[in-house]
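Backbone-to-sequence.
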C-alpha cells in the first residue's frame, strides 16, 4: 500500500495532516506545503483544441518477445513443457528434460526414438515397462511411468477443467493412469486410459477433460502404468479450459495486457527473431498449422526451447484480442552470428511475402487458405512490418532491406515498412515509412532522452520507439526510479508525436524462474502475477493514443519537473477530460500552479475529476510477489479540480490530474429543432480530431 499516495491523494496536491509532516519532513500549513528548497513551477495550459495537436491513434502499444519464458511457460497457457519430447534435438536417443521417471531401472527403461507419426517432429518417448501387476517383477504401488512438472509447477485449480490430449501406441494392451498430482503427491484429478492390444498397435489420439478437486500451484502431470509392455507417447498437452476467449492465452496475464489498452502489438521479437544462428531463428512457416505438427525450436539467444504453439497465427490472434494493430518483425536473413549474402536473399523475401499473405491474403490464396483453415477466414489487420531487428549495422543491411522493401511495396503498396536504421539524428539513406529507435539506459539517460526527438527532421519517415526502458542498477527488478524516468521520456514522446508514431516498453514479461532480462513490465510464476512500476507507469498513458496534445508551457526553477496536458474522451464513460501529467524526478517537493486558459469559469467539474499518483517511501522501491502493490497508482477524487489549481508534487512522484469537462453548449439549427436531438459539442470535437488523424 502506498501510504504517501493515500494520504496525499485527496484533494490533489494539498498536503493533509500530521502523517505527511512525519513522513516527508516538510512543513505544511493551511492548504499548501512549502517546499524546503523553494521549488516552484507554473504550468500554463491552453484548452483550446485549435492550438492542440491530435496524437497518433497508434501511439502507445506493446512489444511481445519470447524472452524470459514470456510465451512458452507464460502467456501461452500450455502446462506441459517439452510436450513433444523434441527439446533434446532431432536425434534419438535424446534427453527428455523436464520429464522425469517414476520408478527405477528394475521396473522400466525410458528413452526416445524417431517413431512419431508427425513428420516434422519425429521424436517420441519410448517407455518399456519391465514390471507387471502379477508375476516375478511386480510394479510398485501407483505404477511406473513419467511425469512432467510443467514450467516450474503446474497451476491446477479446484473446480477448473483441463483439456488433456496425447498420442499413444503400444506393443500390447494399454492401461495407463493419467493424473494431475499435487506437490504432496495427492491426486487432484485422474483418469484411466485403456485399449486392447489391437487398438493400441497404431498411434491414437487420446483426448479428455480432467476436473481438479483441489488447488496446487506446484502440480505435475503423471502417466503411469502397472502393465508390462512398450508404450510410446508423443505430443502430450494439458491446457486449462478457461483460456482467454478459448484462444490459448493465460487469462490473468491477458488481463494485465488488456489493462494497458495497447494500440499495437510488435512481435515476436527482438533477438528471438534473429537467433544467434539462423537455424535457431523464428521462422514463421515452422509455427503454423496443427500444433502437434509444429517442429518447435531452440531459441539460442534466450536459451530455451519453445514448441511454437504461440506461433505466427496466434500472435495475430493475440493482437486482435487486445484490440491492437499487429506489427510483424520478420527474419531478414540476419542472425546475431550469421548473415545471408544479399544475392542469396530471395527465399527470405518470399518467406516475408508469404507471411504477409498468410495474415491478410484472401482465404483462397495459398497462405490465406491456411489461416482460414486455422480458424480465421477474415484477414488480420496487418499494416506494419519490420525488416529484422537491430540489424542496421550488419553486413549490407541496406542492400537486403531494399530487396524486401521493393518486393513488399510492389505486392502491398499500403504496407508500412520499418527500417532498423535510426534516422532521428541523421536522415535515412533508404526509403522507409518508419524506423526503429531503441533505448536502454540509466535513469538519467532515459530522463534526458525525452528531448531526443525535439530536433528530428519532420520531413522523413516517422519514428517507432519499439523498445525503451531504464535498466541495470537504476532499475533493479523494476524500480520506481526507472518508471519515473520512463514517464518523463514518454511525456517527451507525446510532445514529439508529430514524428514519433509508436512507442513500446521492453521486455514485456518475465517468468521469475527464468528471469534472463531484468527489468520487465510484468512478472509472473505459475499462479501469480504483478506489474512493476514501469507497467503501472504505462497506464497513465492509455488515453494518449488518439487524444489531443494541448499547448502547454512549463516555467520552473526545478530541473526535475516534466509535464504535459492532453484532452481525451474516456473509453469507459465517453466523457471528455483534460489530463495533466507531471513527473517530479527530483528529491525536492515542488509547488506547482496550474492555469488553464480557454475555458469558462465553471467548465471543469470537480465531481468526476480525479487525481492518480504513483510514489513510494523510497525511490528504489519495487513490487514483488510478497508486496505486489507497493508501488502502484492510487486514484482519488479531486475536489479541488478547476481551471486554476495549486498543487504540490512530492519528491519522486508521477501524478496525473484528470479534469472532467462540463459538456458545452447545445446547438440547434433547424426550425423543427424540438425534434432534432441536441448536438453535444464535445462529440463534434471528437469527430474533427478523427478527421484530422485520418487525413
Ligand atoms: O528487449 C530485449 C532485447 O533488447 C531485444 O530482444 C532486442 O531487440 C534488444 O537488444
Amino acid at each position: 500500500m502506498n501510504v504517501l499516495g493515500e494520504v496525499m491523494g485527496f484533494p490533489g496536491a494539498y498536503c493533509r495532516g500530521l502523517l505527511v509532516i512525519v513522513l516527508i519532513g516538510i512543513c505544511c500549513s493551511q492548504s499548501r506545503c512549502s517546499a524546503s528548497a523553494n521549488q516552484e513551477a507554473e504550468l500554463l495550459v491552453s484548452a483550446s483544441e485549435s492550438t492542440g495537436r491530435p496524437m497518433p491513434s497508434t501511439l502507445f502499444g506493446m512489444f511481445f518477445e519470447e524472452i524470459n519464458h514470456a510465451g512458452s511457460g507464460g502467456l501461452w497457457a500450455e502446462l506441459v513443457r517439452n510436450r513433444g519430447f523434441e527439446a533434446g534435438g532431432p536425434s534419438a536417443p535424446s534427453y527428455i528434460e523436464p520429464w522425469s521417471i517414476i520408478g527405477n531401472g528394475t521396473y522400466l527403461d525410458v528413452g526416445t526414438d524417431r517413431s512419431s507419426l508427425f513428420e516434422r517432429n519425429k521424436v517420441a518417448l519410448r517407455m518399456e515397462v519391465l514390471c507387471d501387476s502379477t508375476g516375478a517383477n511386480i510394479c510398485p504401488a501407483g505404477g511406473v511411468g513419467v511425469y512432467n512438472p510443467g514450467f516450474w509447477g503446474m497451476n491446477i485449480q479446484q473446480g477448473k477443467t483441463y483439456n488433456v490430449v496425447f498420442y499413444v501406441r503400444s506393443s500390447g494392451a494399454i492401461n495407463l493412469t493419467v493424473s494431475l498430482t499435487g506437490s504432496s503427491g495427492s491426486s487432484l484429478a485422474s483418469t484411466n486410459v485403456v485399449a486392447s492390444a489391437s487398438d493400441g498397435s497404431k498411434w491414437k489420439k487420446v483426448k479428455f477433460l480432467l476436473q481438479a478437486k483441489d488447488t496446487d500451484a506446484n502440480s505435475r502431470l503423471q502417466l503411469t502404468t502397472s502393465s508390462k509392455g512398450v508404450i510410446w507417447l508423443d505430443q502430450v498437452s494439458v491446457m486449462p479450459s478457461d483460456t482467454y476467449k478459448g484462444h490459448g492465452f493465460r487469462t490473468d496475464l491477458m488481463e494485465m495486457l488488456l489493462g494497458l489498452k495497447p494500440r499495437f502489438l510488435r512481435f515476436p521479437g527482438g533477438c528471438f527473431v534473429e537467433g544467434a544462428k539462423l537455424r535457431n531463428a523464428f521462422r514463421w512457416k515452422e509455427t503454423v498449422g496443427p500444433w502437434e505438427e509444429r517442429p518447435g525450436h531452440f531459441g539460442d539467444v534466450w536459451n530455451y526451447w519453445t514448441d511454437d504453439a504461440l506461433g505466427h497465427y496466434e500472435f495475430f490472434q493475440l493482437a486482435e484480442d487486445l484490440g491492437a494493430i499487429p506489427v510483424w518483425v520478420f527474419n531478414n536473413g540476419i542472425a546475431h552470428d550469421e548473415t545471408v549474402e544479399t544475392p542469396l536473399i530471395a527465399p527470405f523475401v518470399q518467406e516475408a511475402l508469404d507471411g504477409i499473405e498468410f495474415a491478410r491474403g484472401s482465404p483462397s490464396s495459398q497462405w490465406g487458405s491456411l489461416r482460414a483453415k486455422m480458424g480465421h477466414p477474415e484477414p488480420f489487420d496487418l499494416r506494419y512490418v519490420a525488416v529484422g531487428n537491430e540489424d542496421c549495422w550488419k553486413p549490407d543491411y541496406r542492400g537486403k532491406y531494399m530487396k524486401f522493401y521493393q518486393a513488399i511495396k510492389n505486392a502491398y503498396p499500403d504496407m508500412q515498412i520499418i527500417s532498423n536504421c535510426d534516422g532521428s539524428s541523421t536522415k535515412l539513406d533508404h526509403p522507409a515509412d518508419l524506423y526503429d529507435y531503441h533505448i536502454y539506459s540509466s535513469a538519467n539517460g532515459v530522463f534526458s532522452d525525452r528531448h531526443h526527438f525535439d530536433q528530428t527532421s519532420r520531413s522523413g519517415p516517422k519514428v517507432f520507439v519499439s523498445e525503451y526502458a531504464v535498466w541495470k542498477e537504476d532499475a533493479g527488478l523494476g524500480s520506481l526510479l526507472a518508471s519515473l524516468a520512463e514517464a518523463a521520456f514518454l511525456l517527451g514522446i507525446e510532445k514529439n508525436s508529430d514524428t514519433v508514431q509508436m512507442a513500446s516498453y521492453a521486455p514485456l514479461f518475465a517468468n521469475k524462474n527464468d528471469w534472463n532480462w531484468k527489468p520487465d513490465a510484468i512478472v509472473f510464476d505459475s499462479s501469480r502475477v504483478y506489474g512493476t512500476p514501469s507497467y503501472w507507469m504505462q497506464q497513465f498513458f492509455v488515453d494518449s493514443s488518439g487524444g489531443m496534445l494541448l499547448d502547454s508551457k512549463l516555467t520552473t526553477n526545478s530541473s526535475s519537473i516534466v509535464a504535459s496536458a492532453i484532452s481525451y474522451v474516456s473509453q469507459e464513460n465517453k466523457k471528455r477530460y483534460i489530463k495533466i501529467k507531471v513527473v517530479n524526478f527530483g528529491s525536492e517537493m515542488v509547488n506547482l500552479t496550474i492555469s488553464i486558459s480557454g475555458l469558462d469559469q465553471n467548465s471543469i467539474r470537480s465531481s468526476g475529476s480525479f487525481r492518480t499518483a504513483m510514489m513510494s517511501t523510497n525511490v528504489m522501491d519495487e513490487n514483488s510477489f510478497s508486496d505486489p502493490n507497493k508501488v502502484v497508482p492510487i486514484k482519488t477524487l479531486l475536489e479541488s479540480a478547476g481551471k486554476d489549481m495549486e498543487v504540490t508534487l512530492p519528491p519522486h512522484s508521477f501524478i496525473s490530474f484528470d479534469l472532467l469537462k462540463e459538456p458545452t453548449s447545445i446547438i440547434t439549427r433547424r426550425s423543427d429543432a424540438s425534434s432534432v436531438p441536441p448536438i453535444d459539442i464535445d462529440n463534434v470535437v471528437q469527430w474533427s480530431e478523427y478527421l484530422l488523424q485520418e487525413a
